[in-house]
Write a structure and sequence with these properties.
336 residues, D-Maltodextrin-Binding Protein, domain 2, globular
């Protein structure tokens, strides 16, 4: 009896100590957010991510986001290919090309943004028509969506693409090259066009946007190695959920987007407005995505950019969106 009298307080003390340790462990776990590195570009079509970061949505989802900027998705993929980064945001053509190069090690997880007016052809003032580009040098980030844009613009206007020289320049070089007269025009996404017109308004003008030619995309993709792990899948779902909350803010609060663009990228309100007005933010894998990427796939095969049709069952990873809302990721069509 005497032993039991001393045993009970001891058991109670031990149980309390275990409970305290478990609580402390849980608190420590909650205070250790999961790290996720995202590669992106300095463009307003990233505004869903901007607002998610500005409003701490990733932190609320238990993520510690490292947001690294590259001049283009093509450049980002060069770093991504070395094994760095977790999620990469890029355009349609770079993503398709990387998918085939990666031999199954990459999947698209969601469409972040798409539009046609956000892709522009900017030209010297003496270039008025597509025919004026014959014999001239135009530029883009070769391998980016700009390559597809140039091809479609020239072909649909009856200009043989072989009659125009295409120069490869990174996006930050394009305004200076055009303003100095080194190139006759460039085809790229905003805000590069807006910046150029601000730098040399007397020498440059908008020749066209991509309406009727292509619809440019910003899509998020990740390595299959990350997606196939339970921890990785959980992180990607958290990322998508937080980005959707950022999207809801970005769609309605232009002032917040403009403030972020000014503070982080030194973008003028006018330049931000031009792209913000045209942004479509699906945060899904929808019917329009399938149709547009089938068109891209057929063009890429015709121009020998790729050698096989796009198979959506291998190109996309639907699990993350399905976990949030099954309507966001319907099953894709057969290979294009």
């Amino acid at each position: 009896m005497q032993n039991n009298r001393f045993l009970k307080p001891f058991c109670f003390t031990l149980a309390a100590a275990i409970f305290t340790a478990l609580v402390a462990a849980g608190q420590g776990q909650a205070q250790s957010p999961q790290k996720l590195t995202v590669y992106a570009q300095p463009s307003v079509n990233n505004d869903s991510l901007w607002m998610a970061m500005a409003n701490n949505e990733y932190t609320k989802e238990g993520l510690d986001i490292t947001y690294r900027l590259f001049p283009s998705g093509t450049t980002a993929f060069q770093s991504f290919n070395t094994g760095q980064g977790d999620i990469v945001l890029a355009g349609d053509l770079p993503s398709v090309q990387y998918f085939f190069r990666a031999d199954g090690a990459y999947r698209v997880i969601a469409v972040i943004e798409r539009d046609a007016k956000g892709y522009v052809g900017v030209a010297r003032k003496d270039i008025k028509t597509p025919q004026d580009l014959i014999g001239k040098t135009v530029a883009t980030r070769v391998g980016s969506t700009g390559s597809w844009f140039i091809s479609e613009y020239l072909t649909k206007n009856g200009v043989d693409p072989s009659k125009v020289t295409v120069k490869n320049l990174d996006t930050q070089i394009l305004p200076t090259a055009l303003c100095q007269g080194d190139i006759a025009a460039f085809f790229i996404w905003q805000p590069v066009g807006s910046r150029t017109l601000e730098i040399c308004p007397n020498d440059s003008h908008y020749l066209t946007d991509a309406t009727g030619y292509i619809q440019g995309y910003l899509i998020a993709g990740a390595r299959t190695e990350l997606l196939n792990s339970a921890e990785g899948k959980d992180k990607v779902i958290r990322f998508l959920r937080a980005t959707m909350k950022g999207r809801d803010v970005a769609e309605k609060d232009f002032a917040a987007v403009a403030n972020y663009a000014k503070a982080k990228l030194d973008l003028s309100e006018k330049a931000t407005r031009e792209q913000w007005d045209t942004n479509i933010r699906p945060l899904a894998l929808d019917k329009v995505f399938f149709e547009d990427f089938c068109s891209l796939s057929k063009w890429a095969m015709k121009d020998k950019v790729t050698s096989q049709p796009l198979d959506f069952s291998k190109f996309t990873w639907r699990d993350g969106l399905l976990a949030i809302d099954p309507k966001l990721a319907p099953e894709g069509p057969p290979p294009c």
